[in-house]
């Protein structure tokens, strides 16, 4: 069954990074559909192991689809290997609460899943971090993912600066990866408490910002909430709001969606 889903359709490419191309989106990217082959080729050919650059684009969050293998569960985390037909990649999914436990409990070896995760810290751990795992119920989603990966590759290599932002937005709009992503970072303590590492007097603002992003209306929105709306709701300086958002992105509490101005909470569905 597994071979029939992927044979002949897997997308592979050489990913030699072009040092002359500026990073397209700075330190943060929207979620991008990729294959394991793309990621491993880019990693092995790059001199900057702390970063992942594919087709001239600095990759933030990654989306992969494939079959789960070698799942191992512990009280604090679940590790597994994802095989997408182009290669295999190890993942860790941190388990911090009952919702995390419920999400990981239904995942079984041999199951096809979609994963949203982060490559951050791969150099030290030799595994990526998954912050959302969703079983695939319609196998057309696998085909769609590879089509999206190919299209993204063609767009980026055709014009590495060109209409990239528009292309990435179209992928997010078309993709079924739209809610409930979670991104715990390597020390797990980063994810345990919003207040534990928020700097001093900024703690209240940071909490207020996160509260807005965790409101039911914000969670229900496919694209999250715009920075300007957060500013309007809280009536605080835009600079302070942006600092709080940057903090929450850095520690994995929230993530950008269709552009660098829309954000969604990763802490709850």
Please describe the topology of this protein.
Layout lengths: L1 H5 L25 E2 L2 H10 L7 E2 L2 E2 L2 E13 L3 E7 L4 E7 L3 H8 L6 E7 L3 H4 L2 E8 L4 H19 L5 H11 L14 H4 L10 H11 L2 H5 L4 E2 H8 L3 H13 L3 E3 L5 E4 L4
Parallel strand pairs: 1-4, 6-8
Antiparallel strand pairs: 2-3, 4-5, 4-7, 5-6, 7-8, 9-11, 10-11
Helix pairs in contact: 5-6, 8-11, 10-11
How would you describe the overall organization of this protein?
The chain is α+β, with helices and mostly antiparallel strands and 269 residues long. It has two domains: 2-174, OB fold (Dihydrolipoamide Acetyltransferase, E2P) (Beta Barrel), CATH 2.40.50; 193-265, Arc Repressor Mutant, subunit A, CATH 1.10.10. The protein has helices at residues 2-6, 36-45, 98-105, 122-125, 140-158, 164-174, 189-192, 203-213, 216-220, 227-234, 238-250, and strands at residues 32-33, 53-54, 57-58, 61-73, 77-83, 88-94, 112-118, 128-135, 225-226, 254-256, 262-265. The strands form three sheets. A five-stranded mixed barrel has the order 4-5-6-8-7. Strands 9-11-10 form a three-stranded antiparallel beta sheet. The longest helix has 19 residues, at 140-158. It is globular. The model is unreliable at 1-29, 161-165 and 171-200 (pLDDT under 50).
């Amino acid at each position: 069954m597994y071979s029939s889903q992927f044979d002949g359709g897997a997308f592979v490419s050489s990913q030699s990074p072009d040092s002359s191309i500026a990073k397209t989106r700075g330190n943060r990217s929207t979620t991008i559909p990729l294959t394991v082959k793309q990621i491993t080729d880019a990693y092995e050919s790059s001199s900057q192991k702390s970063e992942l650059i594919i087709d001239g684009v600095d990759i933030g969050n990654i989306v992969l689809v494939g079959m789960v293998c070698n799942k191992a569960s512990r009280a604090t985390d679940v590790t597994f290997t994802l095989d997408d037909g182009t290669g295999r990649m190890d993942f860790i999914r941190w388990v911090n609460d009952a919702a995390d436990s419920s999400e990981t409990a239904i995942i079984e070896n041999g199951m096809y899943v979609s994963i949203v995760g982060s490559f951050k810290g791969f150099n030290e751990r030799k595994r990526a971090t998954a912050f959302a795992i969703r079983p695939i119920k319609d196998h057309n989603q696998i085909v769609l993912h590879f089509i999206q990966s190919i299209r993204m590759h063609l767009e980026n290599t055709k014009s590495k600066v060109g209409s990239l932002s528009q292309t990435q937005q179209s992928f997010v709009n078309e993709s079924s990866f739209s809610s409930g992503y979670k991104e715990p970072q390597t020390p797990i303590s980063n994810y345990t408490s919003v207040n534990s590492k928020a700097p001093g007097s900024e703690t209240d603002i940071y909490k207020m910002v996160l509260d807005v992003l965790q409101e039911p209306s914000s969670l229900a929105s496919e694209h999250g909430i715009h920075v300007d709306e957060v500013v309007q709701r809280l009536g605080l300086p835009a600079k302070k709001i942006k600092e709080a958002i940057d903090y929450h992105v850095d520690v994995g509490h929230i993530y950008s969606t269709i552009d660098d101005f829309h954000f969604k909470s990763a802490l709850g569905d």
